[in-house]
Amino acid sequence: MTNEGTTTDIATRRRRAVVATLIGNFMEWFDFAVYGFVAVNIGRAFFPAGNTTVALVASLAVFGIAFFFRPIGGIVLGMIGDRVGRKESLAIAIIVMSGSTFVLAVLPTYQHIGMWATAALLVTRCIQGMSVGGEWMGAGTFLVEYAPANRRGVAASVISMTAAFGVAAGSLVVFAISSMLDARAFDAWGWRIPFVLAVPLGLIGLYMRLKLEDTPVFEEIKARAPKGLAKTPFLDSLKEDIRMIGIAFLFASITGLGFYYFVTYMVNYLPVTGHLGRTESVMASGASLVLYGLFCPLAGWLSDVIGRRKTFLIGIFGHMAFGVPVFLMLSSGRLPLAFAGLVIFASFQALINVMNTVVVVELFPPRTRMTSGALALNLGAGPVAGTGPLIAAALVAGTGIAISPAFYLCAIALVAFVVLYFKLPETGGRSLLEEEAIAPLAGEAAPSLSPARAGR
Q1: What is the pLDDT confidence band of residue 8, given thresholds at 50, 70 and 90?
Q2: CA 383/CA 412 separation, integer angstroms
Q3: In this structure, is residue 454 part of a structural domain?
Q4: CATH code at position 341
Q5: More confident residue, 211 or 57
Q6: Is the CB of residue 227 less than 8 Å from the CB of residue 451?
Q7: For a designed S-S bond to 43, which of 59, 307, 315, 411 qualifies (C-beta 3.0 to 4.6 A apart)?
Q8: 435 lies in some domain
C-alpha cells in the first residue's frame, strides 16, 4: 500500500472512531438531561398518587441510585475493554443504553400495573447507570488511543463537547415539547417523546461502532498475548494501579462536582435563588452549555501545547478562586450578570473536564487502562460529585446564604489543587504502550520526548 493510501486509511479510521463515539456519548447525556427535566412527570407516572413532593423526591432518588451502579458497570465494561476489546465494550455500552432508554419510553405507569411500574423504573435506571459507568471511559480510551500523540487533548475534547451538546439538546427539546403541549398532555404522554427520539440515534451509533476496527494500542497488546492482555484486569488494577486510582479519583471528584453543578444545579438555582424567570434560566443555561462545548476543543489544544498538568491546575484554581464571585453573579437577579457567571464557570470547567478524560487514559498502562480508569472516574462521580447538587441545595436551605454552594465547591477544589500540585505527573506525550514509544497508528512517527516531558 502506498503512503498516500496508508494516510487515507488512517484518516478514515479516525473519522469513524470520532463519529461513532460522539453519537453514543451525545445520547447518554441527552437522556441524562431529559430525565432531570421530566422528573416531576416521572414521579407522578410511576409512584402512588397523593403527595406530589414525595413523588418528586422518589423520582429523584431513582435518578440518583444510578450513580451507585456506575462503578459496577464501569468495572464490568472496563474488564471487557481490557480483556476482549475496546470496540466490544463500546458496542455493549450503547446496546444497553439504547435498550434501557426504549424501555423507559414505553414503560406502563403505576396506574396500569401498580408497584411493578415503580420496580421496573428502578431496574431500568440501574441498568442505565451501569451503561453510563462504562461509556465515558470506553469512549475516552477509544478516541485517545486513536489520536496522534500531539493531539490527544483535542481528541479527548470531543467527549466533553458532545456531553455539553447532549445536555443542551435534551433540555431544549423538553422545553420545546412542554411549551407546545398543554400541561395535561405533557404529563400524560408528552414526557416520553424525548426518550423515543433518542432510540434511533442509539441504533445509528451501534451500527457505526460495530463497523469500527479496534484501537492500534489494543491491537498491539493483543499481539503480545498471552503476556499482553491482563487475565484478571480488576485484581491487577487493585494490585498495580491503586496509587494512580486514588489520584484519578480526586480529579474525577472535582471535575464531576463542577459538571453536575453546571448542568443540573445551576439551571434550578437561577429561578429559585437567583429570582430569574424559568424561561430566562433555561435559555441562559442552554446558551452557556453551547459555549462550554465550544471551549472544550480550545482546552484540549491548550493541554497539547503547555501540558495536562498545568491546564488541570489552572482549571481547578479557577473554581477555587472564582467560586464565590460566580455564585454572587448567579444570585444577583440580573440576567446579563448571571449569564456572565455561567460563562466564567464554563471556561474553567472545560479545562478540567477535558483533562479528566485525556489524563485518565494516559495515566494507566494499557493492560488495565479501562478497568482502572472506569473505577476511579465512577467512584469520583458518585459520592462526591453525584451528591453535589443535593449538598448545594441543602446548604442554601440550611444556612439561608445564597452563595453557600460555592463553599463546598471551593473546599473540594482546594483539596484537589493541593494534592494534585504535588502528586499529579505530567502525562502529555507519554507512550500509551507503557515504556514503548510507538506511533498511535501505523505510518506515523513516534513522538520524541525528554524524560521529564514523558512523565516517567
Answers
A1: low
A2: 12
A3: no
A4: 1.20.1250.20
A5: 211
A6: no
A7: 59
A8: no
Contacts (Cβ under 8 Å, ≥6 apart) of 81: 88, 89, 90, 134, 137, 138, 141, 369, 370, 371
- Tell whether 432 is covered by a domain: no
Q: How far is CA 6 from the centre of its chain?
A: 33
In angstroms, the CA 189 to CA 111 distance is: 13
DSSP H stretches of helix in 189-277: 193-210, 216-223, 233-240, 242-260, 266-272
Tally of CB atoms within 10 A around 336:
10
Which residues have a Cβ under 8 Å from the Cβ of 258 and sit 6 or more positions away? 319, 345, 348, 349, 352, 353, 409
Range with the largest mean pLDDT of 18-27, 129-138, 217-226, 361-370: 361-370
Question: Which grid cell sits at 400?
Answer: 439561608
Using DSSP's 3-state secondary structure scheme, residue 433 falls into strand
What are the backbone angles phi and psi of residue 436, rounded to the nearest 5°?
-85, 115
Q: Is the pLDDT of residue 341 over 90?
A: yes
Distance CA 307, CA 407 (A): 29
The boundaries of the domain holding residue 123 are 11-212+231-426
The set of residues, in sequence order, having a beta carbon less than 8 Å from that of 180 and lying 6+ positions away, is none
pLDDT per residue over 246-303, tens digit each?
A: 999 999 999 999 998 998 888 888 988 888 888 888 889 889 999 999 999 999 999 9
Contact 352, 254 (CB under 8 A): yes
Rounded to whole angstroms, how far apart are CA atoms 160 and 314?
17
What string of H, E and C letters represents the secondary structure of 58-97? HHHHHHHHHHHHHHHHHHHHHHHHHHCCHHHHHHHHHHHH
Tell me what the pLDDT averaged over the chain comes to.
84
Question: Would the pLDDT of 10 be above 70?
Answer: no
Q: No. of H helices and E strands in the chain?
A: 20, 0
Burial (Cβ within 10 Å: 0-12, 13-18, ≥19) of residue 179: exposed
Q: Each residue of 60-77: pLDDT tens digit? A: 677 677 778 888 888 999
On the question of a cis peptide bond just before residue 226, with omega within 30 degrees of 0, the verdict is yes
| Domain count of the fold of the chain | 1
In a domain, 166, yes or no: yes
